[in-house]
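Q: Structure for this?
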Amino acid sequence: MRRSASSAPVLLLLAAGGLAGCGNGADSGSGDYPSEDIRLLVPYAAGGPTDLTTRTVGGCLESELGETVVVENLPGGSGALATTELVGAEPDGYTLSLVTAGTMVLTPLANEVGYTVEDITPIGVMADVPSVLAVGAESPYASAEDFVAAVEAEPGSVDVGVPGASTPQGIELQRWADEHDVEVTVVPFDGNAEMTAALRGGNVDAVLINASQDVTGNIDSGDVVPLIASSEERLAWLPDVPTFTELGFEGLTLSGSTFGLAGPADLPDDVAGTLEDTLQACLESDEVREDIGEQYVPEEFAGADGLAQVLDETQQVYEPILG
Amino acid sequence: MGIADGLGEGFAVALDPTNLLYVFLGVLIGTVIGVLPGLGPTATIALLLPLTYELEPVTSVILLAGIYYGSMYGGTITSVLLQLPGEAASVVTTFDGYQMAKQGRAGPALGIAAVGSFIGGTIAVVGLILLAPPLADLAVEFGAPEYVALTLFGILLVTYLGTKHPVKALCMAALGLLLATIGQDSITGTGRFTFDQVELFDGLDFVAVAMGLFGVGEILYNLEKTEKAEQIKARIKNIWPSRRDFRDSSGAIARGSVLGFFLGVLPGGGGVISSLASYGMEKRRAKDPSRFGKGAIEGVAGPETANNASSTSAFVPLLTLGIPPNVVLALIYGALLINGVQVGPQLIDTNPEIFWGVIASMFIGNLMLLALNIPLVGVFVQLLRVRGGILAAFAVLITMAGVFSVNNDVFDMWVVLAFGVLGWLMKKTGFEPGPLVLAFVLGSILETNFRRTMLTSDGGFEVFFTRPLSGTIFAFMAVVIVYSTVMGIRRRRRGRPAALYAEQLEEMTPGAEDEGAAGVAASGGATSSAADPTDRRTGGDRP
């Protein structure tokens, strides 16, 4: 009890600091941006790939801009808690957030959350994490063709795990059935670790999984064997793995995750410009690339327009399915 | 990784100065709250949970585990000195421990409890090392049907069999299962009972619910009681038990270690079941059972050893299957999740530093406890003088700041307050929060896996019985239900209370915290009545 008593004031101070940071942002002119602490929200829990990416970028923004960047995890509501906080903040560049197609497109389409993709100002893409359709080491399916043939021979007989109920991976498998008549049974899990365990134990036949660093380790060790990649072109680090497009399944390129940086709608142009330029500079630094994972940082910087394009494309495809 | 390598790495982690400090803090806090009646490991860990967010995952588990087994030591002290169990698992210790204190043998009683706890804890750590890795390998084979079977088994043990009032416990478990359905459906993503409130999309936060029910509920309940703990005047001298004491209790300690270990591994197992079972076993084996309840040292040594062994072995299902067997472990599970650690069969491979580090810290922690307890018994007893009101105010403040810090969400603070009032009402009306919280945690695991099973089996139920592992578990459940029903009927025919130690527990625990896993009827139906309940009462400790 003694220890906890001494920690309470510290926590209160931290909380007070957080509140102060967002309260008095409005009065500063945009010309001298930034002149105070920047709050950078992560709509997911600490420790995952989103958190790692945001903290890496946040640390670089801090040193480039010369102001403290406070990274804050606000998990919950499939990203809606943090995003609600973002769209409600003053558009002054002192409240920013990580955004994904999941938090900006899927969640508002699936639930009544009171915001849409229009309510943010995109700044740029921080990282792209592709998905792979993968099987276990002892799987009977040695290649993508084997797998597709087995599914087509007996629709619904093959169980494929996805990381959650309304995730891009789940919708992608639904589109695979709707648009290309390849019908698997979608089994939602809770995150990558559960899926990997189920795959290794033979409790699912395959997974469509975000190829984040925890998964690439299992790919390297041979426990997880990738068959198909979700990217538009073959992944540089998996040159032997074909894409859905190559196999004739046009349009199945949306199951990867794009981690974007965004502010509230109506961010002043000079503030957005400063942030976009700084983000670009950060993503060119070797240290940042290494921390995020070299294979996840886009080869060519995708700025505000690039991020907007990804979100809009996803919106157009998902709206008829979910809306 | 072999055991030697693993232990090597584990000790490297555990001997890190920070971790060494936290294992010490953990066992110290554990001992202190074990001494304080009303504040048990569940409430304390619930209160401290959000603070562990700032720590490394392994450090936070080391701290919380230290609190858990530390409290098993601490609970003994007031049981012996004041006939006031500091926490539920020490209830049994009052039977003979207080009698020993009255005879001026408080020293040997506390001494043998400390030694027994040390041995029990250490043997259980060895068991954990040997049993956990093979279990983890087996656990990779665990699919959705097995998780369904295991979670059902856990809920069954905790509710139907594990409490004084099975009907009340079942009500609470049902409420817990219902509460677990709030939030997005895990398979389709549809919102359920969310009323379009973003805060409810992910359901109620487990930490907020547990902190409300256990922490705030307990505080409110204790505030109502104004009586002071009754002090014993007897001095504590010659703490070290005599050679004869050791000879008398060596068998009890050996049996208690093994019994405690295996009961701790079972879902719903834990301190109370194992100490009651050990007491029953010692009494049955004794040449002269009438000595029990009059200061028999075996009656202290056995149960104290068993509850410590079980508090260690309870980590086996958590660290290998990701299934918390009792409420305290459910909270530790929460601490790992908050820290972004996925708990499951892969934990030993992906986070060996956590698995082996925690094990190594248990060795160290048990040694520290032995060193702490023997010279400091007199000091600990002074803690009883802290006024309840002061403690309560601090605890509420910490709880509110703490729960906010988990998700940075004000809504969770309202959840704590609401569940605090609910917990207080439940406590007043004799409903235990344990089954509710455990059902709440296991409910989402159960539902998700049940529906996954249905997805993969195309809606067929036979898969639960045809898969060898889940079939075995279901068969075992059927045996347990039939056995307990038969025993219950036989006991009722003989005019005995349905639950074996119900009356004693009723008498002894008003101030002590129920562990939620308070298994009574499950613990060996063959042992007939323990000490005479009319003979003992807690000094004015009733509301």
